[in-house]
Design brief:
CATH class: Alpha Beta
Mean pLDDT: 91
CATH architecture: 2-Layer Sandwich
CATH superfamily: Ribosome hibernation promotion factor-like
Strand content: 35-45%
Oligomer: single chain
Number of helices: 2
Number of strands: 4
Order of helices and strands: EHEEEH
CATH topology: Double Stranded RNA Binding Domain
Number of domains: 1
Helix content: 25-40%
Distance between the termini: 24 Å
């Protein structure tokens, strides 16, 4: 799986990038035909509240799966997005088996 991480208007630390890479590698246990993963990291600053948004776009054969999660830290947003993505991948795998 090819992983591309795009931090929007800031520089992401190597710890954050390695954390995201490690979490995304675990998705291959649910669906082994993932072609590419694109991750967008965004910081929303509204009314003195700094929310961190993680958007993950997975390219699988015949479909693109998208998840967007927001929380107080990038790590928490990534965990939430990975949980949602794993459920969607399980559904995708079941559909592929049915055909």
């Amino acid at each position: 799986m090819n992983i591309v991480i795009h931090p929007v208007r800031f520089d992401a630390s190597t710890q954050l990038i390695s954390f995201i890479n490690k979490k995304l590698q675990k998705l291959e246990t649910f669906f082994d035909r993932i072609v590419e993963a694109e991750v967008y990291l965004k910081m929303d600053t509204k009314q003195n509240i700094k929310d961190k948004t993680v958007e993950i776009k997975l390219h699988v054969p015949g479909k693109t799966i998208f998840v967007c999660e927001t929380s107080k830290t990038f790590e928490e947003s990534t965990d939430l997005a990975i949980d949602t993505m794993s459920r969607q991948l399980k559904k995708q795998k079941e559909k592929a088996r049915a055909v």
